[in-house]
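#random but structural
TW: two for the price of one
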Amino acid sequence: MKNYLICYYILQQCLFETLEDDIAVLLSKMSPESTDDGTPADMKTFQRWEKVIDADNMTVDEIKNKIAHRLELTAYDVPKTIDFLKNTDIEYYLYQARNRADEFLGEDQ
């Protein structure tokens, strides 16, 4: 679940950077606030994203490339987001995403 949340929070930051409508649509399907257990109401979306990354065993570059690749496999029109992920240092965004995921899951920092 934590890796799923990290993807969600990174994509949320991408929305702020790119303002792409399709990322907003994807995020609405991924939202962990849609159910009590943190899984989205759309379980297919959860299943597609829950194992995209292994944040504890991947580098920042591997994480951003995996997320970009997963986006390339979707029907969403998100070229700005894919470009942003491939060409931006997201280390700070990853740090924030990890913290937000821990907070959401109630884990100690």
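TW: number two ↓
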Amino acid sequence: MSNDPRSIIRKVLITEKGTILRETMRQYFFEVARDANKIEIKRAVESVFQVKVDSVQTMQIRGKVKRQGRWVGRRNDWKKAIVTLKADQKIELFEQI
């Protein structure tokens, strides 16, 4: 695993549930590299967004089985991270959305 923070954080997840948690509990959702651990995710978020992270929760998401006519395929597995920021911290990127 490279130590580049931008290779650990793949993309920001914007969902209805994520919006509610962001406004009420200071929690942000990210898709992260599958082999990244909580410490690496915390350091990556702190360095990319210049905020203080309180805690990180991770979960492995299994890819769904999808069909296209008679052909069956499968989406990739991925990892989700829920990052809770310390009090009076926020990521400015989300305020513009």
